[in-house]
Description:
Helix content: 55-70%
Radius of gyration: 33 Å
Order of helices and strands: HHHHHHHHHHHHHH
Number of strands: 0
Amino acid sequence: DLQICQHRAPTCCTRKMEESYQAAVRRERTQSIQALNFELKYMIVGHITAFQEAFESLLRFAENRTRSLFETAYRPMAKEAAEPVKELFTDISLYILGAETTVESAVLRFFDSLFPLVYSRLINPGITDLSEDYTECLRLTRQDINPFGHYSKNMVTELSKSLWASRMLSQALSLGIEVINTTEHATLTKECNRALVKMQYCPHCQGLTLIRPCVGYCLNVMRGCLASVSELDAQWREYISTLEYLTNEIAASHDLEIALSGIWNSVNEAILHAQLNGPQLSATVDKVCGQPKQQEGNLSSANIVPVKEVTEAQTFVMAHASLNNKRREFINYMKRSRTFYASIAERLCDGDLVMRDSSTCWNGEDVV
């Protein structure tokens, strides 16, 4: 009553043993595909972590630099500016990780929060009553009167251009892991299951436990079983090309590093621009938001302090070099995996599964 290992000669197998063999080949095939996938997955996961650490290092550096700008040049508002600065860099980090946000909304929200502080601490330092309503009016007015000139828009343009490729790369790496995980759990068809039992276990039913399948026979069976997986070949090659393009985009003229490290300068220029146009801004704000309470003898707003660059060059160079090295290593490894899905049958028929060095092997029907 055997269904798979039918043979003219007497057999030592039962129907129950055939069922056990079917369960065994399912388990073995999943394990062997997982073993093949492991190195590739390990490399991608490792690089997701490494890229993220390098991005975070650059972001921390840029955030500290921006904080130090307020502490050295704009001390009256340094404490209150800490929160908007933190939010800006958190939003940038979330954007790189693929969150549903935009660089523009992050930057404009930052300048919305910054304007009430610049207005009440630098342009009109005598303001004592900064109520919620007045603060909100200043935030909303910022969008109409554009106190920071073209600097806020320039910052959006520079950051959007350089962060886009980092965001895409982050999403592409996660997609790669998803694809690999899906192929690990590709279910074997009934025909494939029977073919694998016939190839690996039917010789046992005749007592031939040391005979292994012929190479050509194994390749035919595996290619039939993994036809749906090997169909990924063209898309996988295209995916590797896309990764290569994205890593080159990020590396091109060090856009990411330059844009992040230049945030403090854009913020500084924007604040200086607002201070220089203080009288006109005050006149417009008074019309729209009314006049707030002020201390007697308004403090001078002429104390504009152009800030000199605070260099923490060593940290920045190290983070930049580390990111560049990781890019190179990663893309070189991924290029070697171009044929991963095209050659999956060959890799599964490698090693101990087939008989390579002997002329005696199993062809599915007999020993040849």
